């Protein structure tokens, strides 16, 4: 390149850089775009905490802290001196392994029951598979009990104490709201359920209504996001995906119970997709046109390739990638689905989940599960939540976090020594 050509190239790049700066300034002059291409200002992000404090739990090799974000005041830090990156890694790997072992033993027991019914296994072999599962499950419950206690001691109790939430909420009152924003491997753990549940009042559940948010910005956007759409495009109705029988998967007998519940509470506002009608294409199309969604089916979470997790429909997987390819005008989604954390034990930098994908792409409130759930337990929670949030034939999404809290408290009361039954349920959103 000759010197004149080089000079012209430099002049052109400088001219384009000036034009770029001018265009960015024009965009920032528009209402609502003041921070275009800028990191969000903390003054703005604090507005995410207008409904209650947001706790960002940061884990690093140097030190671990909880950053408490409250509206209208400075962010405060609580040093978590007993928490380390190595401890989190060890705990999360052990936790995922325990859940995977439990799931495998349960599947083996169910398969043995089918084989015994078909005459291919003896009663003694079925009994052996059942006893093996009971042993594994007992170990899983013990592991979860220890994990919940550890999280209380090193993470949640110091946070609640710093917030002045050091006493259980009196009976008959709704606890205050609190949002958890864990980072790294902690995104896989049930912080909302931390506690010594054999000691009354010594748990997160006894003191606050917990919700989760992937980021402060996601919560802020959910608070301000409009779910309105052009007239006629989105209806105040619910897409219900119900698969009691899915090719290659165990039966889910309580799916029928959930469908009957929704038909009773929302008789004129349901679009039911079940059996052969519950295909990936049909479900995506129906979701786009309705404000509420309920999924009662099998789910899967692939921790090695998280974008390939999703819901198992009649003709295949409705993946996170499929979900995020669209935008929705949704108020509420309920994921009454299992197998949400059984894909592996390698730790990702961030947990990418179906629930988070639905939240990012337009659903303000999402109820979901962290791992495989008991079919009956999921139906119990579903029934309790909807009985509380449906009024006059319409879903009231803003009640969903508190409704889920009360449903889980009741389930815990009946299954105190089985945390796997009531711990998985979470709420994401404002």
Short structural description:
41% of the residues lie in helices and 18% in strands.
Structural write-up:
This protein is an alpha/beta fold and 430 residues long. The protein folds into three domains: 1-38, no CATH class; 85-212; 228-428, Rossmann fold (3-Layer(aba) Sandwich), CATH 3.40.50. 41% of the residues lie in helices and 18% in strands. It contains twelve helices and 15 strands. It has helices at residues 3-28, 42-45, 85-117, 123-162, 216-224, 255-265, 280-288, 320-324, 354-360, 375-389, 400-414, 419-422; strands spanning 54-58, 65-69, 76-79, 177-182, 209-212, 235-242, 270-274, 290-300, 310-313, 316-319, 332-338, 365-369, 390-391, 394-395, 425-428. The strands form three sheets. Strands 6, 7, 8, 9, 10, 11, 12 and 15 form an eight-stranded mixed beta sheet that branches. α9 (354-360) links the parallel β11 (332-338) and β12. α6 runs parallel beside α10 (375-389) and α10 packs across α11 (400-414). The N and C termini lie far apart (58 Å). InterPro entries: CHAT_dom. It comes from Actinoplanes xinjiangensis. Residues 147-429 form the CHAT domain. This is CHAT domain-containing protein.
